[in-house]
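Appendix B: complex inputs.
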Amino acid sequence: MRSTMNSITAAEVAGAAAPATTAGVPPPRRRMSSTRWAALAFLAPLAAYLAIFYAYPLYRNVELSLHDYTPRAFVQGNAEFLGLDNYADVVSSSMFGLALRNTALFVLISIVAQYAVGLALAVFFHRRFRLSAVLRAMFLVPWLLPLIVSASTWSWMLNSENGIVNSVLGAFGIGQINWLTSPDWALWSVIIANIWLGIPFNLVILYAGLQNISGDLYEAAALDGANAWQRFWRVTFPLLRPVSAITLLLGLIYTLKVVDVIWIMTTGGPGNASLTLAVWSYREAFGTGQPDFSPAAAVGNMLIVIALAAGFVYLYLQRRQERT
Amino acid sequence: MKRLTKPARAQFMRLGAAGSAMLFVTAMAACSSSDDDGGSTEASNDTYTWWDPYPQHDEGSDWAQRVAACGDEAGVTIERTAYDTTALTNQALLSAQEGTAPDIILLDNPAVSTLADTGMLTTMEEFGFDTSEFDENLLAAGVVDGDAYGIPIGANTLAIYYNQQILDAAGVDPASISDWASLTTALQQVTAAGHKGITFAGIGTEEGSFQFLPWFWGAGADLRDLESAEAAEALALWTGWLEAGYAPNSVITNSQNTTWEEFLTGTFGFAVNGTWQVNSAAEAGFPTGVISVPGVDGGTAPTPTGGEFITAPVQDDESRYDVTTQIVECMTTPEGLVETANTFAYYIPPTQAGQEALLSEDPSLQPWVDAVRTAKGRTSDDLGTDYPLISEALWTAVQNALSGSMSPEEALAEAQANAESATE
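Resulting structure:
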């Protein structure tokens, strides 16, 4: 309903605007150039913003990754040009395979679980009930807490000897699980914490998406005898697809670059058991006594490429859907 | 939006354009003027900049006043900025690159050789300081190719604190602990009596290496050869304690602060920690004592030195060095060192004269003065800037062995390979 109304107003506006622009035909040249100047001037702040805060850091990151920036070279500015050597070193490092595998597990499991739980909660809250607004607000708390607080709290809860999680499990006769200190569990622990952190984001976006699905469709489906399960799979889920796609894409980008949660909980350890590409990059640059900016930048750039590839896949899928 | 009439629209466009252009120009000006600002640390002749890694001491603290007093003495104002230890190294590199380095930086000792190597620090000889009176083992961390790039303003190190109540209950006499075997026996007695044994920090950062080094060196191992039998023996001691339940599994992720909090709960017999906990130990809810970290077959193991060096980054304007010299002097006279020790309560003066003066005020610090005298700089043995790379390999090995994913021998062999490829 709402979308048709929107399109009407848009058409009206377009119709009203058309005669106005054709009515006053200007004396061609001068008018053209002054408009163009104005247009450029309006564009300038944005262009400057993009150049200073996006293009330059990106350029600098690429430049760092192509040179050998030891601390000495960083200060004296005479870093040796290495071409793609840093990338070759990173890819051939024994840690690369592990970090790539951990990153894939961390990202995929995180976003699938965040999306599933977020969607379930969004559908749950879609039906208004007493206190639903209060409860929904409480689900946003993880989003509001500073990460240092939530990640530290998770590491206390998952402490081997004194953590609440193990003491609850102990009550059911399950022995001590070394959540953060066992190489088999450390990655799972940070994934669990990260899922919890990502649920509010998914909940909010999917809940907003649900508001745009017309109630008429559910009524019609109910008249046709569809049960709740069918209404979800045949109405809600397909109509939510565009919102789902953007939620998953943003989730992917946010999760790829997660450093803080993992760093606070395990520093990528024990050993390298929970090392992801992002944590590896951070550790190389800032985690040791000797900053090693060039390989760190190389790993960071790989993450950018992965995120970019995911963005293109999204655009491709969206175009294909628009065409059909 | 309501459509504007044509003249109004044109005016709006012009205004908008002018506004945008102004914004743009201001932004550019802001950018370039920030460059000028960077130089203003040098422009002002009566303000000297000072960076240190003590963000816990805010503006009203005793430490801030102590720094300010040294400025007053030299007739200038000191503008102090505090960073977290790791952030300080990065900030220092960045400022040196931009040519805006502060006049004085207090640096964690393993960082001195890294920064000296970049050419951003002056030598103490250039400032006319005689560093011969400083204990050689403490000064070593700041010496690169025979030149001292800083002066230690104090030193701290590690020892083993114990809970007297628990030891009494378990029938352990701390004086009987003289080597690793007797320590392990003591841990066995303590845990058999129903208490927790020992806690230490095996976290995957520099702190993990710092805590492992007394055992590593105490076994006779060398940082250039991580896969030696001695190194494996030291690591096997730690993993053995975890397997036997003498130490909690959480030591793998524990920092030194966390382990101290654990010790303060009164449930642990022993905790490895540093000089900086002396006051806290005195205020604990139970009587505590200190023994030095034993060597494998007895004696005292060399412990790593902690503590900061006062360094002076290179300035374009060399006339500033006179005042900087006075400030450094104020911090490093025997009286100055004792005052720093008292201000912080965790620093042992790095000179004989300073140590004697401190002991005459507080004789109970004797074990710590002894520990500092036998302590060893992490970057010494000519490791210099290789140390951080070797240390990273070492703490990773400790993590791998403690978590059970590798045997101590495997973990250390991998560490040696990584250290060699990183330092080649």
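Chain B has 17 helices and eleven strands.
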